[in-house]
Specification:
It is globular and about 65 Å long. The longest helix is centred in the last third of the chain and has 15 residues. The strands form 3 sheets. Strands 5-4-6-3-7-10 form a 6-stranded parallel β-sheet, sandwiched between helices. Strands 1-2 form a two-stranded parallel sheet. A two-stranded antiparallel ribbon has the order 8-9. About 40% of the residues lie in helices and about 15% in strands. α2 links the parallel β1 and β2.
């Protein structure tokens, strides 16, 4: 199954639930997922947490892994046993041409330049210049997923990912999923907006290079009006829901969204509209004009 550009987390979860419902044996389920931390992984992980004794996920899917899974299925109907058995064939299926490009041996990771002070830091301590840095502030209804964990994290080199959302901060399952989706060496936190406004005034975060994620433009506006000094917002994806119109393959808006973006623009905020770093930037004014026309036509 696939996640289409105009679909969101609920859509891929519904597809998974429908597929599982079609199985003769629903006690043993194994998900083969492309990216650890992507939207399909996050939704599968949510389902697996309800059946941890018998369901499993293996990420990094490739053809040798799939073939091995089919072969193992002939010998065992235990999802955990099959998951264990297919990891090595999946790794062995990674090859290069020329063969000389293959790593000869594993090397230890070099110490990270992003290391943060460990342990409790006394209140009032000034770290660095005492001001948190925003390497990227992004609006993305999917929050932390594969494109963020791989593309944007590598491009912007943050040492912390912070999801700023009142709704997500109250959702224990989503908070756990976000923390688990964080790339190696870059911890992820979920905080409500008011807590983030306290953080920006705390000099102990002076060495923090944060990648900020907002679920919607309304949260971004509230945070910026509250004191977050964000000059530019990367607009990544906004999932479709009832009442919204599809502006392009990844952005859906309603009148509230349009009005919010205009308020952000009035505050001097610039917009960088692209899903991943390699995409070309789109013109936000043109997208808002298109969204307004589509909303007006729908009335």
């Amino acid at each position: 199954m696939i996640l289409k550009p105009d679909e969101g987390p609920d859509d891929i979860r519904a597809k998974m639930e429908k597929a599982v419902a079609s199985f003769d044996d629903q006690d043993q389920v194994l998900f083969l997922i492309d990216l650890w931390g992507g939207t399909p992984f996050n939704q599968a992980n949510n389902l697996v947490k309800e059946h941890e004794d018998t369901w499993a996920i293996v990420s990094g899917m490739n053809l040798p892994m799939v073939i091995e899974a089919l072969g193992q299925r002939m010998a065992s109907d235990n999802a955990h046993d099959i998951a264990k058995a297919i990891v090595e064939p999946g790794r062995d299926g990674i090859k290069t041409q020329p063969e000389s490009l293959m790593p000869k041996e594993e090397t230890k990771a070099a110490p990270s330049n992003n290391a943060q002070p460990q342990g409790a830091i006394p209140e009032g301590t000034v770290i660095g210049d005492g001001h948190i840095k925003y390497v990227l502030a992004r609006i993305d209804s999917r929050l932390l997923h594969g494109q963020v964990a791989t593309g944007w994290t590598k491009a912007m080199n943050p040492n912390r990912i912070i999801v700023v959302s009142d709704n997500v901060a109250k959702d224990k399952i989503r908070k756990t999923m976000i923390k688990e989706a964080a790339p190696a060496g870059v911890p992820a936190n979920v905080v409500p907006i008011n807590k983030m406004l306290e953080v920006v005034k705390d000099p102990r975060f002076g060495n923090t290079k944060a990648l900020i994620l907002f679920e919607n433009p309304e949260d971004a506006l509230k945070a910026i009006e509250g004191g977050m000094d964000i000059k530019e917002l990367n607009v990544g994806s906004m999932a479709y829901s009832d009442g919204k119109v599809n502006v392009n393959t990844v952005l859906a808006m309603d009148q509230k969204d349009i009005d919010t973006y205009k308020k952000l623009k009035d505050l001097g905020v610039k917009f960088d509209v692209r899903k991943v770093p390699s995409d070309g930037k789109q013109n936000m004014d043109e997208l808002l004009d298109k969204a307004q026309k589509l909303v007006d036509e729908k009335k």
